[in-house]
Design goal:
The protein is α/β, with parallel strands linked by helices. Helix 3 packs across helix 4, helix 5 runs antiparallel to helix 6 and helix 6 packs parallel to helix 12. Helices cover 40% and strands 15% of the residues. The longest helix is centred in the middle third of the chain and has 22 residues. It has two domains: 118 residues, 3-Layer(aba) Sandwich (Rossmann fold), CATH 3.40.50.1980; 138 residues, Rossmann fold. It is built from twelve helices and twelve strands. The radius of gyration is 20 Å and the shape is globular.
Length: 306
C-alpha cells in the first residue's frame, strides 16, 4: 500500500477494519459514527444524519421513516470537505439505508463535488462469510491483501475455538435476539450464526436474511428460554431506557424468559451490529451469557442482565 493513499471510510466497521489492517495512517476522513479506535476521533467527519438521532426506539423509527418519505437516504455528506480531502479510496455500504451513508448517496456527492472518480468500495455483508469477503475487498483496495488473509485467519480461528468450547455445554438455550425494541425487530443477517457459535438456538430470524420485524405474538409463540437485546446504534444506557419502557407492556411481562429473569442486553452500537473486528468480542459476550458455567464474565460491562 502506498503511504500516500488517501482513504475515507463512511462506516464504523470499515474504519475498524482499515485500522486492523494497518491503514490508520491512510485514513483522512470518517463518518459521524466512527469512534473506535480512539485515534480516529480526531479525523474530519464527512457525514451527519438528517434526523435527530437522540430518543427512544419509536421516536427514532418515526423520524427515519419521515426522512425516507422525502429523500433517498437519511444521511448527508459534507461535499466541501469531501472535495478538500481528495480521497483515492472511499468505503461505503449498500446493505442498509439506515445504517450508514448509502452507495447511491455517495455517488451523487462524488459526481457533484469531485472531478475524478475515486476507488469506491461498497460493502454488503449478510452473513459471516460476507463479512470476510468484504474484509478482502478492503484489503485489496488498500494494497494489503496478505494482511487481510492473516487477519481473517486469526479472528476466525479465535471464534471457532470459542464455538468448540461452547458446544461442549450440555444444554442449548433457545434464544430470541432483539435488534430493535419499538417496533420489535429480530436480529438477522450474521446474528443467528453468532448465536449458534455461542451454543444457543436462534429463534424467529434466519442466517443470511435481513432482520425481520416481529411481534409479541411471534415472541410468545417462539417461547424463548432467553431474550438477548442489542439494538442497532444503542449503547447500554439507551438500551436500558427502552427496556424500562417495554417492560411496562403486559405482553412483554407475560413472556416466559422475562418471568424467569433470562433477559440480557448489550452495547449494540460497538458490537453485534458492526460487522468486523468486534465480532470476536460479540461472540464472547453471547458465550458468557449462554454458558456462565464455562465462560467467566470477562466482558461484563459491555453486557448486563435485566
Amino acid at each position: 500500500m502506498s503511504d500516500n493513499l488517501r482513504v475515507i471510510s463512511l462506516l464504523p466497521s470499515a474504519t475498524e477494519m482499515v485500522v486492523a489492517l494497518g491503514g490508520l495512517g491512510n485514513l483522512v476522513g470518517v463518518s459521524h459514527e466512527c469512534d473506535t479506535p480512539a485515534d480516529v476521533k480526531i479525523l474530519p467527519r464527512l457525514s451527519e444524519p438528517k434526523f435527530d438521532p437522540d430518543g427512544t426506539s419509536r421516536e427514532i423509527e418515526d423520524r427515519v421513516r419521515a426522512v425516507l418519505e422525502e429523500a433517498l437516504g437519511v444521511y448527508r455528506i459534507d461535499g466541501e470537505r469531501l472535495k478538500a480531502l481528495k480521497p483515492d479510496v472511499i468505503i461505503t455500504q449498500s446493505h442498509c439505508q439506515v445504517c450508514g451513508v448509502s452507495e447511491a448517496g455517495l455517488l451523487a456527492a462524488v459526481e457533484q463535488w469531485l472531478d475524478y472518480l475515486p476507488d469506491i468500495v461498497t460493502l454488503m455483508p449478510t452473513d459471516l462469510a460476507g463479512v470476510w469477503d468484504d474484509t478482502r475487498k478492503i484489503a485489496e483496495a488498500l494494497g494489503r491483501e496478505p494482511e487481510g488473509e492473516v487477519f481473517i485467519q486469526r479472528i476466525t480461528e479465535a471464534m471457532q475455538a470459542i464455538a468448540a468450547k461452547a458446544h461442549q455445554a450440555g444444554t442449548k438455550p433457545r434464544v430470541s435476539f432483539i435488534e430493535w425494541l419499538d417496533p420489535l425487530m429480530a436480529g438477522g443477517n450474521w446474528m443467528p450464526e453468532l448465536v449458534d457459535m455461542a451454543g444457543g438456538i436462534n429463534l424467529i430470524s434466519r442466517a443470511g436474511e435481513k432482520s425481520p420485524w416481529t411481534s409479541f405474538d411471534d415472541m410468545e409463540q417462539a417461547d424463548p428460554d432467553l431474550i438477548f437485546v442489542a439494538p442497532c446504534g444503542f449503547e447500554l444506557d439507551a438500551c436500558e431506557r427502552d427496556l424500562r419502557e417495554i417492560s411496562q407492556n403486559p405482553s412483554w411481562q407475560g413472556l416466559r424468559a422475562v418471568q424467569s429473569g433470562q433477559v440480557f442486553y448489550a452495547d449494540g452500537h460497538h458490537y453485534f451490529n458492526r460487522p468486523g473486528p468486534g465480532f470476536l468480542t460479540s461472540l464472547k459476550i453471547l458465550a458468557e451469557i449462554f454458558h456462565p458455567d464455562i465462560f467467566p464474565p470477562d466482558n461484563f460491562g459491555k453486557w448486563k442482565k435485566w
